[in-house]
Amino acid sequence: MRKALGTVAALAAVVALALPASAKDMGGKFGVGVDQTLGGVTGLELKYFIGDFAVSLEPGFDIWAPDQGDTAFGLNIAIGGVYYFARSDQANLGFGAKVNMGYRNGAAMSTDKKADASFQANIELPLVMEYFFTDHFAFHVATGLLFAIVPEKGAALHAPGQTTGIVKSKPGESSGAPAAAGAPSSSPKGFGFSFGGGSLVTSAGFTFYF
């Protein structure tokens, strides 16, 4: 009898060790923070949890008004969601999909007054790890697959593999506008594919949950 009880106790201990730690209940929580996606969108992060699934919206914009010349304007936005398939009390791991969209007016694309505006869309499939320092504050990093398509009029998003720097019009000429986060690059028209982020800074952010 004692042997049987010992066996049952041992099995119970193994099962207890195998069970996951208590998971943080995020259902119905709303978060506000800052995010920079793999697809090149930087801005405010708005996130809402529906069970283990989080939907997010990341809008951002920048304006550069030089003393001379036209005002450069850029707008970027990311929309998507992440399903957190592994959860614990301190960290969540999830996989999702996001569409990144960017728009730059002609002045942001080139010093040439005849330059056209550009619109670009990138698609990313991020693997996201979110770590909770408290019940209300979390830091997240991401890596994953990115599909970038640079239009003929030029890149409107800064994604891995594109050259960054000053907004250019012709070789050796620049608009004088500093390249803000998400600013266009000198990358020519084409299609790009990458895995992973350039660094933690290019694929990280933080969120405060209410």
Fold and architecture overview:
This protein is mainly beta and 210 residues long. The chain has a single domain (26-209), classed as Beta Barrel (Porin), CATH 2.40.160. The chain is 10% helix and 47% strand. An eight-stranded antiparallel beta barrel has the order 1-2-3-4-5-6-7-9. Strand 2 and strand 3 form a beta hairpin. The chain is elongated, with a radius of gyration of 22 Å. Residues 1-19 and 163-185 have low confidence and may be disordered.
Neighbour order of strands in the largest sheet: 1-2-3-4-5-6-7-9
CATH hierarchy, class: Mainly Beta
The helix count comes to 2
Fraction of residues in helix = 10-25%
Examine the coordinates and then state which fold CATH places here, giving the name of the CATH topology: Porin
Number of strands: 9
- How much of the sequence lies in strands comes to over 45%
Task: List unreliable stretches of 5+ residues.
Answer: 1-19, 163-185
| Largest sheet entry | 8 strands, antiparallel, barrel
Could you say what the CATH architecture is? Beta Barrel
Compute the number of structural domains: 1
Q: What separation lies between the terminal Cα atoms?
A: 53 Å
Strand-pairing-aware structural class: mainly beta
